[in-house]
Design a protein that fits this description.
By secondary structure, this protein is α+β, with helices and mostly antiparallel strands. It has a single domain, classed as Nitrilase/N-carbamoyl-D-aminoacid amidohydrolase, CATH 3.60.110.10. It has 3 helices and 6 strands. The strands form 2 sheets. Strands 1-2-3 form a 3-stranded antiparallel beta sheet. It is globular and about 40 Å long.
């Protein structure tokens, strides 16, 4: 049995109402370019978009649908005195990307993966070890 669930969620409203920062992964459709991006956004507790990162290089079958990012955000976002960074999937395998975050003294890292395979867990543990 297939059940279709359609919901509209206003992330800004939820963040303000609950007094939390929200970071989430999503597939972003850019209408004017007709392009699909694998992205991470961050919404502050004031309802402001404070982080927007597009995956730098689509991997494997993503290349059939997703476009590489022309602009990407590798900035650190400060939340309650914690320095937060985020990467998507195989970006964790890019040594210079990891080093860039280490140089910015990242304290909390959000590792967004499509699933949790052993290989992804190993990469996440390696990132934490560095």
């Amino acid at each position: 049995m297939f059940v279709e669930i359609v919901a509209t969620v206003d992330g800004e409203e939820i963040a303000m109402k609950c007094g939390v920062h929200i970071f989430m992964g999503l597939h972003e459709l850019h209408d004017s370019e007709r392009s699909l991006y694998n992205s991470i956004i961050g919404i502050s507790d004031e309802g402001l978009l404070v982080f927007h990162h597009r995956k730098m290089v689509p991997t494997f079958t993503e290349k059939l649908l997703h476009k590489p990012a022309e602009h990407f955000d590798l900035s650190i976002h400060e939340v309650n005195k914690f320095r937060i960074g985020a990467l998507i999937c195989w970006e964790h395998r890019m040594p210079l990307t990891r080093q860039y975050y280490h140089d910015q003294q990242e304290e909390v890292h959000l590792a967004l993966w499509p699933s949790v395979h052993e290989n992804h867990q190993i990469a996440s543990r390696h990132y934490a070890f560095e």
